[in-house]
Structures are given as C-alpha cells and as structure tokens.
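Researcher: Sequence of Flagellar P-ring protein follows. Predict its structure.
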Amino acid sequence: MRFIPLMLVRGAILATLVLATSVTHAERLKDMTSIAGVRQNQLSGYGLVVGLDGTGDQTSQTPFTVQSIIAMLQQKGVNLPPTGQLQLKNVAAVMVTTSLPAFAQPGQNIDITVSSIGNAKSLRGGTLLMTPLHGADGQVYAMAQGNVLVGGVGASAGGGGAQVQVNHLSVGKISAGATVERAVPSTLGENNQIRLELNQTDFATASRVVTAVNDQFGAGTATALDGRVIRVRTPSSSDARVSFIGLLENIDVKPAVAAAKVILNARTGSVVMNQSVTLDTCAISHGNLSVTIGADTQVSQPAPGSRGQTVVTATPTVEVKKDPGKVLLVKGGASLAEVVKAMNSIGASPQDLLAILQALKSAGSLRAELEII
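Model: Prediction complete. Tokens:
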C-alpha cells in the first residue's frame, strides 16, 4: 500500500474571522451563566489492568507494577517468596479518571477513562480490576471496574515494513465503568437564594440580567453583586425551587457588546478578531516591509433638479510592499483586518505579524486587547 505524505504549506496563514458584530442577539441565561455550586468534581484512582495479550508493562522497568501485584495478591491471601521475581507481560499499571456529575447519587453509573502510566504497548482486551476513585479531599466517591475498550487500530508489517497506528492504544474507556458510592453535599437554595455567575465578566450584561429577571419575577428578585455574580431569591420548597430555576434559565437576555479583542497564533500566523477593529494614526518601521494606507475617494452626484447634495466618501485602501528603508504609515480609520490580509498576501511571516501587532498595541494605535497564544 502506498502512502501519500501530507503537503506542508509554507508561509503564514491568515484566518481573520469576525465572531461578533455590534449587533448582538438575545441568549438564554442557561447559555450565559452557571449556578454556583452546580458543578462537576474530578475523581482519579490508581489501578491495574490484567488479561493483556503480552502488551503489558515491562516489569523490569516498572517496579511499581510488580509492587502493586504483590500487594493485591497478599490481600487475596497469596504469599509470594521474597526472592520471587515476577515476569508479567499481561498486566499494566493505569490511572483511572472521571468527573462526578452534579447531584450524582450512590448507585449511579458514570463513564471512566483508563490511561497507562508505565510502558505498556496496548490496553486492548484488558480488564480493569476494582479501583477506588478519590476526590480532592481524599475521600472515595466511586468504584471502577470493567473491560477496557480501546478505539483505533494498530498494525505493523514484519521485516521492517510500514507501521500504522491510529489513536493511542495505551488509553481506553469503560462505559458506565464506575459506580458512585458517595454523594457530594449540595448547598443549592441555601438561605432561599442562588448565585448566577456570568461566563464572562461584564458589568453591562450583569445589569441587563438583573433587569430581565426582575421584569419576569418581580422587583427585588435579582441583585447584582459585581460584574459577574447575580444573587437571585428563590422559593423555599425544593419542588418550587426546581421549577423556578427551570424558568429562570430560559429567560432571554441581550448581552452587551464585548470588548474588542485580537488573538494571534504566533506559530501559524492566524489572526482572530471578535469584532471589526480599526487603527488610529501611527508610523512603524519593521524590516523590509512597507505599508501604505490611502483612501479610495468616491463622489455621489445627485440627479439634476433633485436638490440633493454631492456626497464624497473615502474608503481606506491598504498596500503592503517589501521595500527596505520605508516606514509603515498607518492612517486613522484603517481596518486591522485589511492590514493583516495585505501583509499575508506578500508572505509576511508569523514573526512579522507578531512584531507589528505588538508595536501597534504599544503605540496606542490598536485599541483592542491583544492575546498571543
């Protein structure tokens, strides 16, 4: 079988996306906020996977696997001689991880992920032995056990032939592989109130949420504590509280326009903006790049006898050239998207984009938050 290698694209790639405009649409509170205390809790545990087909840990290099096997056998009443050297190829030491959903109760089943921590080649076909899963407080909240399902394919041809591997064979999942043994205490509705927390801090949006909730349920129901947290009074009974929260989450609120933000991937040169960003007047010198921003003047002449007025509009135009010794001249009102697009068209490197955007930000011409990833 012949494999065609992936083509490597040389040069920076521009991905200028306008994610939001000045016109925003109403969103449900369920999508904009979360309720304090209603959250998942991470669990983890150390266990053993047995029944592997010779793809387990090399015990000479993973002594903790041997120690775990000896300890487990001793608990089962099997005593090994102190000089015994175990050679196990069908056992792998693993870490088991999962998230305990909010309001999970004893007896509920949850999915788990099993990951090798040794040098096992594959967990395919293995069985996870009973493993306690602990929370951050050290308490056991669930017990895990079951057959590990490893997705993907691993194949190789003998004699130094081609090898193909899709997915990581040292990581698998067990659907409904853990049983909840302990519930996390919930403080929802304590003192007949809940706290809504905005996904993004915004004082204007918080004020709009308070207004929308009070219009729906009456004055004084909601109170903003800061730009992120809104306190909401709830009914005293649990049944009425659940119904109230269900109605609360479906209230539509029009969020405020987010602050301008520009995100640059320094490795690929991708630029993402959350809205249209314009530049103030500035001048920058960078290497052999020359940027000229002019104006395309258009004149609108009214028809004779219409008593209209002649309208002259000037649309900014951008031109980028590789011309050493020139200065980047940026006039006010120019679009950052057009500047970056023009620079990318002549093959500007990601480092060039990074340096120029940082210079624009330092000079005060770029009136947006610059984030580099």
